Amino acid sequence: MKKILIVDDEDKVRRLIKVTLAIGDFEIMEASAGEDALKIARETIPDIILLDIMMPGKLDGYDVCRTLKNDPATKEIYVIMLSAKGQKDDIEKGKAVCANDYFIKPFSPMELIKKIDNIH
Description:
Elements: E1 2-7, H1 11-21, E2 26-31, H2 34-44, E3 48-52, H3 61-69, E4 78-83, H4 88-96, E5 101-104, H5 109-117
Parallel strand pairs: 1-2, 1-3, 3-4, 4-5
Helix pairs in contact: 2-3
Protein backbone atom coordinates (compact mmCIF):
# COMPACT_ATOMS: atom_id res chain seq x y z
CA MET A 1 0.00 0.00 0.00
CA LYS A 2 1.48 3.35 -1.07
CA LYS A 3 1.47 6.17 1.46
CA ILE A 4 0.50 9.50 -0.09
CA LEU A 5 0.70 12.91 1.55
CA ILE A 6 -1.61 15.53 0.00
CA VAL A 7 -0.44 19.08 0.71
CA ASP A 8 -2.77 21.91 -0.28
CA ASP A 9 -4.15 24.86 1.66
CA GLU A 10 -7.56 24.46 -0.01
CA ASP A 11 -9.78 21.90 1.73
CA LYS A 12 -11.84 21.28 -1.41
CA VAL A 13 -8.73 20.42 -3.45
CA ARG A 14 -7.48 17.99 -0.80
CA ARG A 15 -10.96 16.44 -0.61
CA LEU A 16 -11.17 16.05 -4.41
CA ILE A 17 -7.77 14.36 -4.57
CA LYS A 18 -8.64 12.13 -1.60
CA VAL A 19 -11.92 11.04 -3.25
CA THR A 20 -10.07 10.41 -6.52
CA LEU A 21 -7.48 8.25 -4.76
CA ALA A 22 -10.15 6.34 -2.82
CA ILE A 23 -10.48 3.94 -5.77
CA GLY A 24 -6.92 2.77 -5.17
CA ASP A 25 -5.14 1.03 -2.32
CA PHE A 26 -3.49 4.05 -0.71
CA GLU A 27 -2.91 5.32 2.80
CA ILE A 28 -3.75 9.02 2.61
CA MET A 29 -2.39 11.76 4.87
CA GLU A 30 -3.11 15.47 4.58
CA ALA A 31 -1.46 18.79 5.39
CA SER A 32 -2.66 22.32 4.72
CA ALA A 33 0.64 24.18 5.15
CA GLY A 34 4.31 23.71 4.37
CA GLU A 35 5.43 23.43 7.98
CA ASP A 36 2.87 20.67 8.65
CA ALA A 37 3.89 18.88 5.45
CA LEU A 38 7.53 18.72 6.55
CA LYS A 39 6.58 17.41 10.00
CA ILE A 40 4.30 14.69 8.59
CA ALA A 41 6.78 13.74 5.86
CA ARG A 42 9.61 13.34 8.37
CA GLU A 43 7.45 11.29 10.74
CA THR A 44 5.81 8.98 8.18
CA ILE A 45 8.12 8.97 5.11
CA PRO A 46 5.36 8.77 2.49
CA ASP A 47 6.02 7.18 -0.89
CA ILE A 48 4.53 10.15 -2.75
CA ILE A 49 3.80 13.77 -1.90
CA LEU A 50 1.27 15.74 -3.94
CA LEU A 51 2.48 19.25 -3.18
CA ASP A 52 0.74 22.54 -3.93
CA ILE A 53 3.05 25.46 -4.63
CA MET A 54 1.13 28.50 -3.41
CA MET A 55 0.42 28.12 0.32
CA PRO A 56 0.15 30.54 3.23
CA GLY A 57 2.81 30.60 5.91
CA LYS A 58 6.58 30.73 5.82
CA LEU A 59 7.10 27.84 3.40
CA ASP A 60 5.66 27.49 -0.09
CA GLY A 61 5.75 24.26 -2.09
CA TYR A 62 9.16 25.05 -3.57
CA ASP A 63 10.62 25.54 -0.07
CA VAL A 64 9.07 22.28 1.14
CA CYS A 65 10.37 20.33 -1.85
CA ARG A 66 13.87 21.80 -1.56
CA THR A 67 13.98 20.96 2.16
CA LEU A 68 12.78 17.39 1.61
CA LYS A 69 15.22 16.73 -1.23
CA ASN A 70 18.15 18.08 0.82
CA ASP A 71 17.39 15.78 3.77
CA PRO A 72 18.89 12.26 3.48
CA ALA A 73 15.86 10.82 5.32
CA THR A 74 13.31 12.24 2.86
CA LYS A 75 15.20 12.81 -0.39
CA GLU A 76 13.83 9.64 -2.04
CA ILE A 77 10.17 10.65 -1.61
CA TYR A 78 8.55 11.12 -5.02
CA VAL A 79 7.25 14.71 -5.16
CA ILE A 80 4.60 15.80 -7.64
CA MET A 81 4.10 19.57 -7.66
CA LEU A 82 0.49 20.68 -8.17
CA SER A 83 -0.06 24.22 -9.34
CA ALA A 84 -2.24 26.56 -11.33
CA LYS A 85 1.05 28.17 -12.36
CA GLY A 86 1.86 26.48 -15.64
CA GLN A 87 4.37 28.91 -17.08
CA LYS A 88 7.66 27.47 -18.28
CA ASP A 89 9.54 29.41 -15.56
CA ASP A 90 7.36 27.85 -12.86
CA ILE A 91 7.96 24.35 -14.19
CA GLU A 92 11.72 25.05 -14.36
CA LYS A 93 11.64 26.28 -10.77
CA GLY A 94 9.98 22.98 -9.79
CA LYS A 95 12.76 21.07 -11.53
CA ALA A 96 15.37 23.25 -9.81
CA VAL A 97 14.13 22.12 -6.38
CA CYS A 98 14.22 18.50 -7.62
CA ALA A 99 10.47 17.86 -7.92
CA ASN A 100 9.93 14.55 -9.70
CA ASP A 101 6.89 15.71 -11.66
CA TYR A 102 4.63 18.72 -12.18
CA PHE A 103 0.85 18.69 -12.71
CA ILE A 104 -0.93 21.86 -13.79
CA LYS A 105 -4.33 22.55 -12.19
CA PRO A 106 -6.92 21.71 -13.22
CA PHE A 107 -5.63 18.24 -14.04
CA SER A 108 -7.36 15.02 -14.93
CA PRO A 109 -7.90 12.85 -11.85
CA MET A 110 -7.41 9.77 -14.01
CA GLU A 111 -4.05 11.08 -15.26
CA LEU A 112 -2.99 11.58 -11.66
CA ILE A 113 -4.00 8.03 -10.75
CA LYS A 114 -2.21 6.66 -13.80
CA LYS A 115 0.94 8.56 -12.78
CA ILE A 116 0.75 7.34 -9.18
CA ASP A 117 0.18 3.75 -10.29
CA ASN A 118 3.37 3.92 -12.39
CA ILE A 119 5.56 5.12 -9.51
CA HIS A 120 7.51 2.27 -7.91
